[in-house]
């Protein structure tokens, strides 16, 4: 494509960009049809993209060409039309990568600026092909740039334009893959270390509602990732589970010390309390973890691949220890309140560790768990998890141990790590969970006497349709925007 540069130079900036997109579409179609593996866009084509779409000057002495705001909006509409009209996903993915794949040069800033505007427009217009390409981009790109894209969307839909949150919320149904990657990016961005890095209440509400409606949503990237492929270095985690656990554990202390929180007597009736939201989120995360044995067994990965990494949990316990020290030094509330928040944080950590390890999400020894929790103060539930020989839990809110048609007619099997007589052990709920979590998974005391053998229980009912594997998402077809140049 290097020979078309001379024909692009006399054109105005918008016309040149439009012409180049047209030729880029034809070039990549031919590249895919040639059967070359892997298909790769050549450097001359990338140079043309930087010069005529990203407007990076060809040499240092040349002045950069600039688009007006109106021309940039027109270019974004042309791009939306280009991706919408192209029916082959391979061509779309290659074109998206050619346009927005980071090259490590000065044009990357222009790439990120244009990408943020394009994805924001795709969210507003429901352009599924672009959201699907952006999901792949988020999976392959350094996390620093992924959180920048997430920040643009949060600013556009949760901060700058009042009432626009429902528009962003629709990505759950439009592109579940992008929604999953977006959750992973925002949980990486907002780590609750400062007031600025605390998620907006509208964003928190939206994520809680997504996961409540479909717990498997946070596993979509993992389910769609080829087992043979390795994650790029410093990319986002394959699931947002680690970030969600961090949110739930740190929330009682982080929000307690947030000076910008609205006083109770000034809160609007429409603004929910963050406490119940995080309790609901915590319960949802535990339920997602309890889905993993079935999924990991189907993939042959149970006991071989953990979705929660020990080093991430070690970093979390270190942050939690610091927050607990600060809470002790700056305690200004009543003694009961000052004690409740730290204990709630420790309870949630214990529950997450217990359920993650019992369901194959965390692969480590109990000695490793004791080591990363050694600096934390005493907590009864955490002590049980760290010292108990076996962790019992019930399966009331979980589907059968296989997602096959035959699983609906078989009783729940005991976890391979549990002794046979423990499969039906009753467990009491813990007060740290919301009231509706009466059957949530909590560690039982290791000193309980041995129970007599139980008679077999009645098989569970058939798996509800809401837990069926995610269907393939058809591309939405809308009114096309012509991107073919006028000759």
UniProtKB/TrEMBL annotation:
<dbReference type="GO" id="GO:0032039">
    <property type="term" value="C:integrator complex"/>
</dbReference>
<dbReference type="InterPro" id="IPR027844">
    <property type="entry name" value="INTS15"/>
</dbReference>
<dbReference type="Pfam" id="PF14964">
    <property type="entry name" value="INTS15"/>
</dbReference>
<feature type="compositionally biased region" description="Low complexity">
    <location>
        <begin position="413"/>
        <end position="448"/>
    </location>
</feature>
<feature type="region of interest" description="Disordered">
    <location>
        <begin position="413"/>
        <end position="464"/>
    </location>
</feature>
<protein>
    <submittedName>
        <fullName>Integrator complex subunit 15</fullName>
    </submittedName>
</protein>
């Amino acid at each position: 494509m290097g020979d078309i540069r001379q024909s692009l130079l006399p054109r105005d900036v918008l016309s040149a960009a439009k012409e180049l997109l047209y030729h880029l579409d034809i070039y990549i179609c031919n590249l895919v049809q040639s059967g070359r593996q892997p298909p790769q866009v050549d450097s001359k084509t990338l140079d043309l993209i930087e010069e005529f779409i990203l407007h990076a000057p060809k040499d240092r002495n040349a002045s950069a060409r600039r688009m007006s705001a109106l021309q940039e909006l027109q270019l974004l509409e042309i791009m939306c039309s280009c991706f919408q009209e192209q029916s082959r996903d391979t061509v779309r993915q290659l074109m998206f990568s050619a346009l927005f794949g980071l090259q490590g040069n000065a044009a990357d800033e222009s790439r990120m600026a244009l990408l943020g505007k394009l994805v924001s427009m795709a969210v507003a217009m429901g352009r599924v092909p672009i959201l699907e390409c952006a999901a792949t981009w988020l999976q392959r790109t350094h996390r620093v740039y992924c959180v920048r894209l997430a920040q643009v969307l949060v600013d556009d839909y949760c901060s700058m334009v009042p009432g626009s949150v429902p528009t962003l919320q629709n990505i759950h149904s439009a592109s579940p893959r992008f929604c999953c990657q977006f959750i992973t990016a925002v949980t990486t961005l907002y780590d609750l270390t400062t007031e600025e890095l605390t998620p907006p209440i509208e964003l928190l509400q939206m994520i809680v509602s997504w996961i409540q409606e479909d717990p498997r949503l946070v596993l979509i990237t993992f389910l769609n990732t080829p087992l043979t492929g390795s994650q790029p270095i410093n990319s986002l985690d394959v699931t947002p589970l680690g970030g969600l656990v961090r949110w739930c554990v740190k929330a009682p202390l982080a929000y307690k010390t947030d000076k910008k929180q609205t006083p109770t007597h000034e809160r609007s009736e429409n603004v929910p309390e963050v406490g119940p939201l995080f309790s609901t989120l915590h319960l949802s995360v535990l339920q997602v973890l309890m889905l993993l044995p079935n999924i990991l067994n189907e993939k042959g990965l149970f006991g071989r691949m953990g979705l929660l990494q020990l080093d991430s949990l070690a970093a979390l316990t270190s942050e939690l220890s610091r927050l607990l020290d600060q809470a002790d030094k700056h305690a200004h509330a009543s003694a009961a309140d000052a004690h409740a928040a730290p204990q709630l944080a420790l309870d949630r950590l214990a529950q997450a560790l217990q359920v993650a390890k019992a369901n194959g999400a965390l692969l480590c020894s109990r000695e490793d768990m004791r080591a990363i929790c050694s600096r934390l103060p005493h907590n009864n539930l955490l002590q049980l998890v760290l010292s108990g020989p076996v962790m019992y839990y019930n399966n009331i809110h979980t589907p059968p141990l296989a997602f096959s048609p035959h699983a609906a007619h078989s009783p729940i099997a005991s976890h391979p790590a549990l002794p046979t007589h423990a499969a039906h052990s009753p467990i009491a709920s813990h007060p740290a969970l919301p009231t509706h979590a009466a059957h949530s998974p909590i560690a039982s005391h290791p000193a309980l006497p041995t129970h007599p053998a139980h008679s077999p229980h009645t098989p569970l009912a058939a798996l509800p349709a809401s837990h069926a594997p995610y269907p393939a998402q058809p591309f939405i077809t809308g009114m096309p925007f012509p991107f073919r140049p006028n000759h």
